Amino acid sequence: MSQHLDQQEAAGVLLNDPDEGRSGHSLGAYLKFIIPSLIGVLFFLTPVVVDGKVTIGMGVLADMLKGAAQDYLPAFATALLVTSALVALVAAAFRPAWAQKDSTLVEIFTPKGSWLALRVLGAAFAAMTLFEFGPEWIWNRNTGGVMLLDLAPMLITFFFFAAILLPFLVDFGFMEFIGTLASNVFRWLFRLPGRSSIDAVASWLGSGTVGVLITTQQYEQGFYSKREAAVIATNFSITSIAFSLLIANVIGLEHLFVPFYLTVVATGLVAAVITPRLPPLCWKKDSYHEAVGKQIKEELPRGHSLFSWGLEQATRRAAKAPTPVALGKSCLMNVGDIWFGLLPLVMAIGTLSLALAEYTPIFTWLSYPFIPLLNLLQIPEAAAAAPTMLVGFADMFLPAVLGKGIDSELTRFVIASVSMTQLIYMSEIGVLLIKSKIPLNLLELFAIFIMRTLITLPLIALIAHTLVF
């Protein structure tokens, strides 16, 4: 019990004394919260319009690096993946002294069992794709080519800056401040801590992967329970405005972007309210990550308003923020974990998923039950649209690619909107979640994907018939 209380004290949260924590902080303590938090807000939560597209500061930096190194990034990604696989194989075969220590480096380079196999597979796929040898279904432009030439450069640059800048948003009190202000609404509407609003906004303005990264870190630090982390990661990793605009252009709906995106937001909110109250998410326990235990308590103490208590929580958190040296080390380890640990899994699972969609009829077969449902909802060209309802589980871009040839604008509107609200796709978000410590497996992810599809599809069809067309 005393250990549990110590953990809560370490996080700067209110314990049993409702009068504890009256504000008595110096100007320096407030500045330690305000200045780093403003940096985090500027890079993650402030919309920036570049070349007519809405993005965020971190996205601008990533795009600049990607543009400057575009020709070299596929080869760099392949080198990272091959190095990751070789080091992991050496560690597994020879058990060197460094691999027997308890450290973050060991966590990155000593995967076990199927994770080691996927890491080797990811390296092999990358090499085959870069040099175009082996089975064509691996290195084809629509399978391994998408992963190595399109997605890997984006992940390398995006997560490089995300890992460096994310501590400004989560380690200096901003999550505590906003979480306290939003706690009542989020608890009532979504049964979640108010701080989860940050995950949603970061996803909305930047990328769904950023939202998952924030959620994963918050769960591992004890700020979300297992249920909360699973709910947030699968319902609030919202597709960014920039990507939504790209999908609208690909499928030929750029002239309907405003009603399209408003439809996505409205139906996504409905799904976020309903899905967590159904299995498998409602079955998740409200227990916390075993390594740290619970680190949050959002009850408002006597004598405090939401604002004053949020400020108090924020300054406490900032006071216990990591030192610059510890922060730098943590950032480097986060980058290493993403480049050497996550990237091989994305390459392996993403390539296999895209190959299934490109070379087999499995998604077409699985989509047959959607044909009568689409007919019932009076969606034109139902047979052509049905596969797009499921292929998004492999990659969120595929429904737009498959649906752009459909003549009916209404059908294309429904396809694009549904693909944006499904959220879970294996080429990126799915791999992130499976690799994380959040308790979600592949079968549960597919079940949530289907559930969100069945919830949002009728709503989107209704909006399309009554308000848009």
Automatic annotation (TrEMBL):
Presence of keyword Ribonucleoprotein: no
Record keywords: Membrane, Transmembrane, Transmembrane helix
Keyword Amino-acid biosynthesis recorded: no
Pfam families: Gate
Nucleoside transporter/FeoB GTPase Gate domain span: 154-252
Protein name listed in UniProt: YjiH family protein
Membrane-spanning intervals of the chain: 29-50, 71-94, 114-134, 229-251, 257-275, 338-362, 413-434, 446-468
InterPro entries: Gate_dom
